[in-house]
Specification:
CATH class of the largest domain: Alpha Beta
Distance between the termini: 30 Å
Strand content: 15-25%
Largest sheet: 7 strands, parallel
Number of helices: 15
Radius of gyration: 21 Å
Number of domains: 2
Helix content: 40-55%
Oligomer: single chain
Number of strands: 14
Shape: globular
Bound molecules: nicotinamide-adenine-dinucleotide
Length: 383
């Protein structure tokens, strides 16, 4: 019988496979509930089933606009409690997150800081701590440290996550998604990347590798200098917007590109966001601009705004993280996610075993876990 993509992904998550084998015997999460709100797609399926092998009862919902029904069905068939399904409705998503917390998970695997934030508003005593996957979540939770006071390890701050996923994999995946969704050429095109963190660095490098001319905009002068020394153009944001054939935001901040920028954009400019929250491009204000005469929706997650002056501006995936949207969204490479999720599994194990103290609240992955995961990956490569 034809095997599906979830099975292909599971087979290629070699780190998670070996951790699952170990967890089957050690059962670090026996009797514990892990609650999560994470992009539900084939790679997270592999992670959640690995945690289940470790004895956890897993309760999960997806993230806004990225949940894949096949992943939901696969998990539900294997005993994971999945709350809700694919949605881009913020209120429904909030209800689903509250639904996860209603199970009073002992450990939270958070993605954006939403679950820990909700827990603060309706605390229960049995929460042991957990992990946070993203940069955006770390920024969200850092100011709440004094209130949370539980061990929370931030996967994003592992150097492995930074170079393997954010830089290399997001860069590749953004290029792959741009080609897959728009099917437009990159060669000779001007691409403007907002944000030169790890993700932006990878996006810029992959776009340059695809023969685009790349401009970088970053608020931080050090990042602009770094981009300049890496060989990119670093014009003012106004010039970078006016020149761009394709604008991609990957900053983790809100309102990076908005209605006021419409006047700058050239005819045919394409806007897409790869940052975690769908707020980097202020799509509602852009759509409601008095200068928009008409809107056309194309298949494959492209919307065209016809401006009163005749220009056409295209928005990909309504400003949602576009490498997890559109037809057959693949996200980041399996191996990069296997590395990040091996860090997740080891960090959650460390929290449940009491190896991380409550003073380690919103801190990077401990060095020994990074080293263990790096060695395991290299051992598999050279086995
Ligand atoms: N699409 C994916 O698959 C994926 C994967 C990992 C992370 N992410 C997300 O990508 C985003 C960026 O992650 P990162 O690790 O590169 O973050 P980072 O914090 O390392 O880098 C963000 C950069 O954006 C710059 N910046 C902030 N506001 C800006 C503005 N208004 N204009 C221009 N530059 C601005 C900052 O100075 C910084 O250099 C986060 O939201 C993260 O959660 C997405």
């Amino acid at each position: 019988m034809m095997k599906n993509r979830i099975e292909w992904v599971a087979r290629n998550c070699r780190l998670l496979t070996s951790i699952a084998e170990e967890f089957r015997n050690s059962k670090p999460f026996a009797g514990k509930t892990i609650g999560t709100g994470i992009h539900l797609e084939p790679k997270t399926v592999a992670l959640l089933l690995t945690l289940q092998e470790g004895g956890a009862r897993v309760v999960s919902t997806g993230n806004l606009n990225t949940t894949q029904q096949g992943a939901v069905d696969h998990l539900a068939a294997r005993g994971v409690t999945v709350i809700g399904g694919p949605t881009s409705d913020i209120a429904e998503h909030q209800r689903n997150l509250k639904g996860v917390l209603s199970h009073k998970p002992d450990i939270i695997l958070d993605n954006g800081g939403d679950l820990f934030d909700l827990w603060l508003k309706d605390r229960y005593a049995s929460l042991l701590g957990g992990t946070e996957e993203t940069t955006s979540g770390r920024m969200h939770l850092e100011p709440l440290r004094d209130q949370i006071r539980l061990p929370i390890l931030v996967i994003n701050d592992s150097p492995i996550k930074q170079f393997a996923e954010n830089e290399h994999a997001v860069g590749q995946s953004v290029l792959e998604s741009y080609m897959r969704i728009t099917n437009r050429v990159t060669n000779g095109q001007r691409v403007t990347v907002f944000g030169y963190g790890a993700c932006g660095k990878g996006v810029a490098a992959n776009m340059r590798g695809a023969n685009a001319k790349v401009s970088v905009v970053d608020n931080d002068p050090l990042k602009r200098l770094q981009a300049h020394l890496d060989g990119y153009d670093t014009p003012s944001r106004e010039v970078a917007l006016a020149d761009a054939d394709f604008v991609v935001t990957v900053t983790g901040r809100q309102g990076v590109v908005g209605e006021a920028d419409l006047a700058l954009l050239k005819n045919g400019a394409i806007l897409a966001n790869a940052g975690h929250f769908p707020l980097e491009i202020d799509v509602p204000s852009i759509r409601e601009s008095a200068n928009v005469a008409d809107r056309e929706q194309f298949e494959d997650a492209v919307e065209t705004l016809v401006m009163k002056d005749g220009r056409k501006i295209h928005i990909v995936a309504e400003g949602h993280m576009f490498n997890l949207a559109g037809p057959r969204p693949l996200g980041n490479s399996i191996e990069s996610m296997d590395l990040g999720f091996a860090l997740q599994a080891r960090c959650l194990e460390a929290v449940v075993l009491g190896n991380v103290s409550s003073s380690d609240c919103v801190v990077p992955v401990p060095r020994e876990i990074d080293e263990r995961v790096a060695n395991a990956y290299l051992d598999l490569c050279y086995a």
